[in-house]
Structures are given as C-alpha cells and as structure tokens.
Amino acid sequence: QQQQQQQQQSGSGHKAAAGSSSPSAGSQGSTSSSDEQELAGAVRSGGFVRFYDDDQPRPAARRAQGAQARRRAASAASWLCSTLVGAVPVAVINFATCATYGLLMAKGTGVHPQLVIAMLLYSTATSGVLLSLLSECPLTIASGDASIALYTNLWLVEAYNHPACTDETRLPTALASALLLSLLMGCVYFLLGHYRAADLVQYLPFPIIAGFLGMVGASIVKGGLVVAIGSDLDSPDDIAHAAQQVPLECGAALLLVVVLLALRRVRFPPRFLFVGTMAVALFLFYAPTAMLRIARERLEESGFLFDVSDPVGPLGLWRELDPTRITWEALVPQSGEVFGTVTISTISLALRISAIDSATEAHLDPDRELRLTGLVTLLVGGTGGLIGSHSPGLVALNQEVGSARTSGVCQALLLLLLWLTAFPLTNLLPRFLLGGVLMSIGVVMLIEWLWVVPRVRMTRQSHALVLAMTAYSLVYDMISTVFGGILVAALLLVGRFSRLSVLKYHVSMASQASIRRRSVGESAHLRAQGERVHILGLEGYLFEGPAVKLVKYLQRVVVPPEGAADRQQARRSTKARAAGSGGASGGGDGGGERCTATPPSAAPPAFALLLARRRRPAGVSRTRLGRVPDMDMGLPPAKPSPSRERTIADTRPTAATAASAP
C-alpha cells in the first residue's frame, strides 16, 4: 500500500511537472538540462521529484554558501588571533615603558604619577595608531623616549617649584608646562621636516647610529631594573644596595631574562615567546600566593607588586588643569634649557628614525617622518597628551612577533582601551615581570649592536667607539655622549684618510715617451735623459697626512746627486710644487702646462706631477702602465694583479706639470 501511495504521489508530481513545463510558463523560462535529467530519472525510478522556487537556494548551493561563510569566519578568527598574539606582548611592553617613563617624569614634583602615566598612555596610543597607519615603515611603534622623559621632568620640576607658584597653582602650572612642551616640539618637528633639515642626520657615521642604538638598549635595561626593584639606580653603589635589600625580586627578574634568552636561542616561535612566558610567570606567581594565602600588603612591602593606585580616567587631566589657577610666567623655563630641550629632542628623534631605517631597511624619508611626527604631536599635545614618537626597541620587537601595520594598530588600540577604561594594570602585573621583559629587550639590542653588527661592518676602532659610547651613557646623559662620539668619529675618519695612498703610479720618461714630434737632436737628448723625468699619477684627496707623506716620498726618490746646497734647494722647490698641487684631486681633469723639451742646464733630475684623467681624449692611444713595486710611499708592497694596472689617457703631462731645475 505504501508503494502504491508513493506511485500515486509520483504520478501527481509528474502531472504538476508537465504542467509547469507547458508553454504557459514561457515567461519564467524553460527548465535547465540538469532539471530535465533529474525529472526523467525520477519518473523512470518511480521516486519523488522535489520542486524549488527560483528565489530560494538549492541544498547544494546552501551548503556551499555555509561552508564559504565558515571558512571566512575561521580565516577572520585566525587573523585576529595572530594579530593579538603579536600585539599583546608589544602592548604590555609599551605599557611598561609608559609606566617607567611616567614615574621618571613625575620624579621631584608633587604631580601624581598615575596622572602622568595616563597622559603618556593617551599620547602613545594616539600616536601609535596614526604613525602605524601613515608611516613609510609598516613596523613603526610609538612610545616614550628616555631623553624626552628627562627634559619633560625638567620642565615639570621648573614649573612646579617656581617661586611665583603657590600650593594651589603648582599642579595646574606643571601640567600646562608639559602640554606647552608638546606643542613646542610639534611645531619644531614640522618646521624642520618642512625645510628638509633632517638630511643632515644622514651624514652621521654608522658607528654613531650603532652607538645610539646601544645606548637605547642600555637605557632599556636600566629602566627595566628600576621597575623590577622599585628604586632609582644612579650609581653602582645603588645597584649593590638594591641587590642586598631585594635579592628575590632581582633574582626573579634576572631569571626571567635568562629564560627568555634561552628560548630565543632554541628558536622558540617569537609570536608565542612573550605571551607564553608571561602567562606561565603569572601562574607561577599567583598560584603559590593564593595557596599560601599571602596578603597583598605583604607582597607590596617586599617589592613584588606595585602599590595600589587609584584609577585616573580620561577626564582626570582636565579636572586638575584649571586655567584660572595657572601661573603663566612659570610655564617656560630659562632660555638655555629651552634651547637644550629643542636641540636634544630633535637630534634624538632624527637618530631614532635613522636607527629604525637601518634596522628595518624600510628606506624612510626622515623629513617626511619629521613632518608626520610634528603634526601628530601637535594633535596629541592640543588634546592633553605628551610627546610620543618612534621607538627603535619596540620596532625590533614588532619585527619579531608582529605582522606589520596590523600589530602596531592593534597594540595602540589596546593601549587606548586601557586609557579609556582607566584600568590600573600596574595593580595586577608583578614588578619582576615588567622589569624582566624590558631587560630582555634591552639585552637583545645590546647583543646585536655591541657584538654582532660591529664584528661584520666596523673596524676595531669603530667597535671600541660604540662600546665607549654605551658605557659612557650609563653615567652621563645620552646627548653629550652622542656629541662626543661624533667628535671621536671625525678624528678617526681623518686618521683613516691620512693613511690612504694617493700615489697612483710612478714612471719615468725612459719607459713612457711623449707623442709630440720633435727634432732628431731633441729626441736623442730626451732618450738619453729620460730617467731624469718622473711622471707621477695621483688619486684620492691631498690634505694634511697624504700631502706630507707625498712630499717625503718625493724628497726620498728625487734627490740631487751632488752637493748639500743643491739638495736643500731642490727639496724647497719640491715642497713648493707639491703645495701648489695639493688642492687638486686625482679624478679631476686638470689643465697644467706641457713639459718643455729643452734640456735642463744642470745635472739634478727633473720631475713632473701628472694627475690622471677620468676620460680619454678622442684620438689618443691608450698605454697600460704598471705601478713600480719599490715606490709605494712606505706602504707594504701589493701582489701584482691586472686590477693594479692603471690606464692613462695621454702620455704627456697634460694635467699638472712642473720641471725641476736649480
């Protein structure tokens, strides 16, 4: 009976299908070939035929759409997880940097440190979003800077302790002074970038850039140690005292640094390095404390946790910044301090941009980056933030664990979320965790720029300069170290130039005759006296050291054969002619007088200085001359090779000549 019912239903379905395929349905179009085949197969088998509306998707299409939607969702979830894994450690380290520099800025004043940290957190988040999106380097991360933090502290201290300020006006005056500093530096950055003044930094020697990066790494290590132990480190005695007072905190921070370096050594995936290590460290810290029921006050007294601080919301600054309570004459410090702040902050930013360019090979335009940083700083300073700009250390971290712009933007948004929610993250994270992670980043930078890079790209003198700059910056400020390094690098450069050889070749007229047609007597005389004509080709730069070395060489080679008076007179004439040609370069075209064919009247030899041309004049034959091995100006003899041979365009002394005669 069930089979008969199915056949009856199938027959009614066939009739309906036939009716639907009648000519009256021409407005909807004929069915496709696949539908006809499905219908014919169903009729033959006596099965069912299912009809679909053209507006409704078929089951296969619906399944395909569902699978595609699931793939898109899985891809989006994977991208989000990957971005968060790369952004979370950068955001945590950036927050630790903001906390460290915020504590440094508020030192010596009555300004609440959490208020300064909130201002720096807002500027770092806002600058991070804009710089990550607009910078030419996709790995750009914005953060605070040690030199800027020091000078911000100077402005805050000067405004807070100004004699004209009262107890009611100190706090708003100090905050207004910090905002004025941000607006001032924003204008300076933009103007310097607009007038393309950042190109001067491109002429700095590479050891200065490497030394600056080494100083940044040392500053990060020092800041991480300060965060870990909770006290300032101004001298080696402070380090020894801290090791005696808080040995467990120092040991925990150093152990974390060793673990992170060991995981790097075994090539642990960088994306999970900091996230996994921080999660394990938090578990190992809070699990025993919860099991042993150790009170938070005890952990704060021992130095494992920060003191509990009240949250500072986004409007906390504007509640304190009352224009009616600002002492306007106390906003700006003395002119010398203002000039030093502008100069040092500008040099620091230009060096950081150049360091990021060297580390990432992004081919940055420093003027464009300066203009962009100036506009961003003006925006941030006008809305209640401090100076936030490029951070080489965080860029190196983002290069390892991040995914270009997405990680930079995501970590900035996480910081902005922390600022909006006013969540005091320092109440949760232990001191040794933030300090240990900061120290690990600094140690990696020190290893790279104090050991790896100098061994490949520097001489021993330049390597020693980098080490000296890094050690000097731990005791004194960074900018004086940079200026001292530039002076030493300039002296090293002059010394290297003075050791270069300017002698290209030295031949006589016996082996290289003139192509000028002369009489038989003159030609015979020149052949007989050809050894007395010296032809010297020069290259490079003639100044100080090379010029003195060349004069000594001429005095040693071209010596009068008889008489001390003649020797002294020839020596004086040699010095005069060498000094007259000292301003020329070996690559120039030259244009001196031709050597005369008249025989000299006395016995002393004649010599000519020939400056080789870069281009061969048309119609002049080429003659290859080898360098005389025993005339190398005191330098060690080189092995003969085809590359040592030189080509001169004209055998005549056409660039600069001089005939010696007493």
3D structure, described in words:
The protein starts with a helix and ends in a 14-residue tail after the last strand. It contains 22 helices and seven strands. Helices cover 61% and strands 4% of the residues. The protein has 662 residues and is mainly alpha-helical. The relative contact order is 0.12.
Question: What is the secondary structure topology, with strand pairs?
Answer:
Layout: H1 2-20, H2 33-45, H3 59-105, H4 113-134, E1 142-143, H5 146-160, H6 170-194, H7 206-229, H8 236-245, H9 247-265, H10 270-292, H11 296-302, H12 316-320, H13 335-360, H14 366-382, E2 389-390, H15 392-401, H16 405-421, H17 431-457, H18 460-473, H19 478-498, E3 503-508, H20 520-528, E4 533-538, H21 544-557, H22 564-580, E5 606-611, E6 623-625, E7 646-648
Parallel strand pairs: 4-5
Antiparallel strand pairs: 1-2, 3-4, 6-7
Question: Can you give me a brief rundown of this structure?
Answer:
The protein has 662 residues and is mainly α. It is built from 22 helices and seven strands.
Keywords:
662 residues; globular; disordered C terminus; 61% helix; single chain; mainly alpha
Relative helix content: 55-70%
Main structural class: mainly alpha
Major sheet summary line: 3 strands, mixed
The overall average pLDDT, rounded, is 75
